[in-house]
Amino acid sequence: MDGLLIIFERKPRGRMILLDFSQTMIGSFMAMGKGSVVVEEDLLRHTVLNTILNYKKTHRHIYDGTSGPGLVICCDSYKNWRKESFPEYKANRKTRRENDTTDWQSLFEFLHSMIEDFRNYFPYKVVKVDGAEADDIIGTLVDHVAVNPTLIISSDKDFIQLQKYQGVQQWSPLTKDFVKGNPDESLWEKLIKGDTGDGVPNILSADDTFIIPGKRQRPISKKKMELWKTDKNDWTQEMERNFQRNKAMVDLDETPESIRINIINQFDGQRPQHGRLMEYFVEKRLKNLMEHIGDFE
After folding, report:
1. 173: preceding bond cis by omega (within 30 degrees)
2. Is residue 79 part of a domain?
3. Total tally of structural domains belonging to the chain
4. Are residues 77 and 175 in the same domain?
5. Within a domain: residue 275?
6. What CA–CA distance (Å, rounded) separates 189 from 254?
7. What are phi and psi of 180, to 5 degrees?
8. Per-residue model confidence as pLDDT tens digits over 186-245
9. Least confident of 73-87, 92-106, 176-190, 198-212
């Protein structure tokens, strides 16, 4: 269906929190300390729930409530379309993970089980679509749901580009502050300079720059970046090709239409669970959080 124009009805204005689940929760796990031992599920479950509780209580007066979707859990798929389009995408992350002692397999298995728990017991919409990253889900829902205000909870500066939409703000769990920036300038910088953290080189550098030991990017001056906004006369075919590569990887408007359709259909078709929190808290022996159970609604 890519390339077809699909028109969906935009949802009413209200309030919404979009949680970048994997990125935020991995950050919480790393704050607990690394180790090769099996993930302590009870401790991590408490940490995950306490983290979500903190976000809801901190931002509820502005962003949550009955006037909108409230909290939406946005999840990464195991496979994603960017990796299929650009095999070097995030390849450096895999290398780093292979060289540390964190029990990544146990962590990802636990996060998957938590996603299922949220679907089955919690009053939140949970969106996880084959081939999509949380970035795609957040970018699609910000546009589709048209909620004002909307809060994105993530430390990823890729989301600055979404501040072009009215009422969109971002809270960073890393800095404990709002992420602010010029959406056009932020996107342009990433289109030209790439994204080192995701293994995307700048437009002067080859696809394999970050996976070949010792290979380095060709530098780009601020003067050139500014000039290229209006004058690309000195661009080569290779630069234009790399620009399009970067646009596909970092511009959230480039999410394939077929994936956007699946995200919207899953979001619109969900009916969050209500009335099952007590069952879950008793089953998981969450005594320390029981007095706050109402705050999870």
Report:
1. no
2. yes
3. 2
4. yes
5. yes
6. 16
7. -125, 150
8. 999 999 999 998 999 999 999 999 999 889 999 999 999 999 999 999 999 999 999 999
9. 92-106
